[in-house]
Amino acid sequence: MIAVARFRGAGVDAEGLAAALGALGSCAGFRRGSIGSSTDEDGLWCLVTEWDGVGAYRRALSSARVKLEAVPVLALAVDEPGAFEVLVESGPGGDLRLVGGPDRAPDAGTAGRGAT
To answer: Could you say which DSSP state residue 103 is in?
Structure first.
């Protein structure tokens, strides 16, 4: 799964995002991560991380180091959904690889946050 957090405005900088990425990167199940700044808008950043699964990501968010170093930065993120399951991957050359189907619970649209 991938987690995407976007940041806009004061209080966010490369140093703070790097500290958050370092803390997340120290956790079990972390695969890779990157920090980006917008080429179109000053002050717009993103932090993208890839995980073995949603369980690894959620466990990472509860680790002591992440609570101290990453959560204060993540709290500044734009309030929008940020966890995504990877369904299709592509590498150089454009060859597509089906990774898996949706892993949502059958009642995901009717239970919990965002339910209709």
So the answer is: -
Rounded CA separation 4/33 (Å): 10
3-state secondary structure string across 34-73: EEEECCCCCCEEEEEEEECCHHHHHHHHCCHHHHHHCHHH
Residue 10, C-beta contacts closer than 8 angstroms, at least 6 positions apart:
none
Q: Could you tell me the pLDDT band of residue 7, with boundaries at 50, 70 and 90? A: very high
**Nearest by Cα to 79 from 23, 6, 17, 13:** 6
- Measured distance CA(48)–CA(93) in Å, rounded: 23
- Beta-ladder partners of 32: 50
pTM reported for the whole predicted model: 0.82
Tell how many helices (H) and how many strands (E) occur in the chain. 4, 6
Query: Has residue 116 got a pLDDT over 60?
Result: no
Which two three-digit tokens encode residue 27?
Answer: 């956790």
